[in-house]
Amino acid sequence: MIKAKDLKGTGVAVVTPFTKNKEVDFDALKRIVNYLIDGGVDYLVALGTTAETATLTTEEQKAIADCVFKETAGRVPLVIGAGGNNTQAVINTIEQNEWIQQYDSLLIATPFYNKPNQEGLYQHYKAIVQSTSLPIVLYNVPGRTGVNMSAETSLKLANDFQNIIAIKEASGNLIQINRIINQKPNHFEVISGDDGLTLPMIAIGAIGVISVLANALPKEMSRLVNAALTGDYVQAQKMQKVLFEISQKIFAEGNPTGIKVLMEQKGLIKNGLRLPLLPASATLENELSRCFLDLES
To answer: Element (H or E) spanning 201, and its range?
Structure first.
């Protein structure tokens, strides 16, 4: 069973590549897995937000999870997204599917749309935690779910349940994040959920990032994270300067709209998304191409 220390470094929220017919491109998915591992990332996250999971059928999710698991072949730890806004349905999905249980840890986002209060969030996670022996990474992303999990709720969950091992924090609130880091129990760690805030979050005690940008730039993102974790802030700041603009632009028209542009330029995938997401505008494509050329020069 993995612990928080096994998720130290650079994790990647892996995209789902599609063919021209909008079917899952499994050859490209295998290519991505090997590209990321060869690029030095520390673990992979399947079926997160960046994977466009909301647009995938259950059968497609199973096939993707199996593909990533088999292609990884134990080389790095694997985390799988398994959240939702119906607590019992989340529990049932985890309990009834071996393709979820074969992963090392679950990533559970706060419920979207319902907008529960803090006690509702606590009870949601409590019910899920008590239904499984798998380690759980909390995921606080209020920009997508419409609800922010407070530092107090995150800390209460971390203190009450040993198999809650970390939180992917994407609130952007460094005061809240700092409070969690300062008061957390020893078995629990904080992971950046925002590429652009990775360096400052590591500086105050986070153990790394679950990155979108690393889908296209695994070596560069890993270099930033590793430098920061070893206290080489000169190198980390240098990499932050190089990556910051491009890390902001990839989200300008939604996620994974921008990162798929970069991945196509790398020859990894075809730049296809499923509705309601659309391909990047010509303006954004040109801006990302410029950033990419600057990065390569």
So the answer is: helix 198-203
